[in-house]
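Sample 3 of the quickstart, ligand shikimate-3-phosphate:
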Amino acid sequence: MSLPRIFMIGPMGSGKTTVGRFLARRMGLVFHDLDQEIERRCGVDVRTIFDIEGEEGFRLREHALLNELTLADSLLLATGGGSVLRADNRALLRDRGLVVWLKTCVDQQIRRLEKDQRRPLLQAPDREERLRKLAEERDPLYAECAHLIVDSDNVPPLQMAQRAAKRIQQHLESEQVS
Ligand code: S3P
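Result:
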């Protein structure tokens, strides 16, 4: 069986990068993190891109790189939480690989992101309210895009990766049968 392309989607703090790394190693896939790749190519961090170009500029860069990276073979890509905002991003993710939504609740996000200073959309007076609003807007978009949903609450990343690997394997096998 050829190696799949796997795309991890989900909100900030759902564990896409950490779980994705474990999962890629386990499945023999090349790991990329979309934000880290944007930062590497721009030579500045995401926060600086937001400061200079606004969210709109960041989304354009995000789309261009997503379009490029989702064509690579044997890839596991951890996307940014807002990658699903554009309909064309959702379509290309869904068409080009297996999309796994790491689903998590806002309480868990708050705990994991407590000290975060680098995510521009999180720098709000009331983080909880911001995350709840984002979840309300975006959960339907994650749902539209995902082939698989894996619950990431209260599970350490390694265990999470094992859980996701099992689900992905089952999904790929069922696709071969049908
Ligand atoms: C964003 C999530 C971030 C990053 C940027 C915007 C979002 O990625 O792309 O700060 O819109 O939710 P992570 O989900 O990896 O934190």
